Amino acid sequence: MIGEPRFRQERLGQQHDRASFKCTREETLERYLTDPGRAARENKRNVSAVYVLLDTTQGDRIAGYFTISNTTLIPALVPVDVAKKLLRYDSWGAVKLGRMARHDEYDGLGLESILIVRAFSVVLSVAEQSGSLALVVDAKNETLAAWYVNQGFRNLPESPLTLFITNAQMAAYVKALTSAGEP
Ligand SMILES: CC(C)(COP(=O)(O)OP(=O)(O)OC[C@H]1O[C@@H](n2cnc3c(N)ncnc32)[C@H](O)[C@@H]1OP(=O)(O)O)[C@@H](O)C(=O)NCCC(=O)NCCS
After folding, report:
1. pTM of this prediction?
2. Residue 10: strand pairing partners
3. Binding pocket residue ranges, ligand 1, CB within 6 Å
4. What residue segments make up the domains of the chain, in order of their start?
5. What phi and psi values does residue 169 have, to the nearest 5 degrees?
6. Considering only CA atoms, which residue is closest to atom 1 of ligand 1?
7. pLDDT tens digit string along 30-55?
8. pLDDT value at residue 1
9. Residue among 53, 105, 120, 143 to mutate when testing ligand 1 (max atoms within 8 A of CB)
10. 55: closest CA among 102, 120, 125, 113?
């Protein structure tokens, strides 16, 4: 798995040091993890599955995290070239990337590529067990929407801050990054 052995991925648990997580650029994403109980409660109740990347060289400090939950994608809102290749249901099963953030200390070290590949890998494993065609994300703003486009996501034409990427594209991304070596 990309980022190993330094970065170990685990589902959030009581043993993790949530309090030391720093994300000054987006404090709501820092507080989601550090506030007593919030991420832990949602994770425990399966509202969201919270995954942490632990830096094994820093005493298992949380270097980044992402959250995954189930959602649907409405075919009528997807670009026509994608929609026409897929079956005509009112909605498709999909997975949502609810939150994703990197600890301030890892700015410029390529951790974002590890986070996104790990998120894609979780989503692809969900799709092996349950119908799910794509990963969907609501970007916080236009800059971040452009960042997701750079990772291969596409905007929904009528709501450009919502983006998606298909399973096939995620699989190709994981393969390309894995064969290129770690960032
Ligand atoms: C999202 C993230 C993992 C991307 O890491 P990265 O590939 O190293 O990219 P950068 O940190 O350089 O961010 C890309 C651009 O988005 C901007 N950006 C990042 N987070 C931002 C935020 N919360 N609000 C506004 N702009 C933000 C950066 O300033 C940068 O803009 P620029 O290209 O004009 O310089 C990382 O920026 C991060 O953890 N951000 C804070 C958490 C966050 O906002 N997550 C929301 C995801 S919707």
Report:
1. 0.95
2. 52
3. 23, 25-26, 29, 100-102, 112, 139-141, 143-144, 147
4. 7-180
5. -70, -40
6. 101
7. 999 999 889 999 999 999 999 999 99
8. 82
9. 143
10. 102
